[in-house]
Structure formats: structure tokens, C-alpha cells
Amino acid sequence: MKTHSTTPSEITREWWLIDADGVVLGRLASEVAKLLRGKHKPSFVPHLDVGDHVVIVNASKILMTGNKLMAKQHHRHSGYPGGLQSVPYSKLMSTRPEIAVEKAVKGMLPSNRLGRAMLKKLKVYAGPEHPHGAQRPTVKDLKKVAAPQDVSQAHTIEEVTGA
Asked: Per CATH, which fold does 14-145 belong to?
């Protein structure tokens, strides 16, 4: 008997809907990266993009543990000398929480063209609404695996800024 290797014609993709309300950012990113990569499928092969599409809603209600909301910085560079711009996560989560989630997931995917193709299947929205209802995404509950273990250490942006 020969070992089966998945071919591109055998790939089937599903759509998942994940509610990020009350979920820790890093744990959410880890589970989403598994779905995008396809590691939950028996047909997984590392050289093909066999992963599913993932839609994340309520990104603005995500939790961060410890002092990360105040201390952690989001960096980007324009490419010019002196073009480094840093934004604290407290400001980033209040203005563009989608970027924080996308960056966390991107860091857990391969750093090559396959990883960039996987990242295109991620859709993140700050509120509860999304335009992907026609794809009939399956709801995946991550509260069991991605909820904070110590609730007193987990903070939302509303708690920190007082909004």
C-alpha cells in the first residue's frame, strides 16, 4: 500500500465563523492559524494550502493578558531613514483592532508565499456583522480553548481606556 499525498484537485475548503468576544488574542491566533493551514484535516500536507476560510467577528472585544495593552507596541516602517512609526496596542485596539488580530495570526503562519496565500483566507471584522453570510460559515466556539485562565489578568480595551 502506498502513502497517499493530497493533490490540489482533492482540496475542499470550508468557511468558519469565530466570535472573538472574551477570547485571548494569542490563543485565538493559534487556533485560527491551525484552521488556515489545514492542520485539523486528515488530508494535510505541508507543501499545499489545504486550509479553510476563517471569518472573525467582534475583534474589538478581544482580551489581552497582563500589561500588554499598555506596554506592547505595533511597529511599521515606511522604508525611508527615520520612518519607523510605533503605536501602542491601547490605541491600535481602539482604532483598528483588525490589524492586531491579523498581525498575531500572520506571525503563526509560514513566512513564505504559501503563508501569504493562507493569510488571504482570513477575514477580520471589528463588529458582529460580516458580509460572508452567503458562504454559510460554520460557527466554531473557541471559549473552551482560548478563554483566559486567570480572568483578573485579562483586559479589554474598554477596561483600560474607560470607554
From this structure: Ribosomal Protein L13p; Chain: A; (3.90.1180)
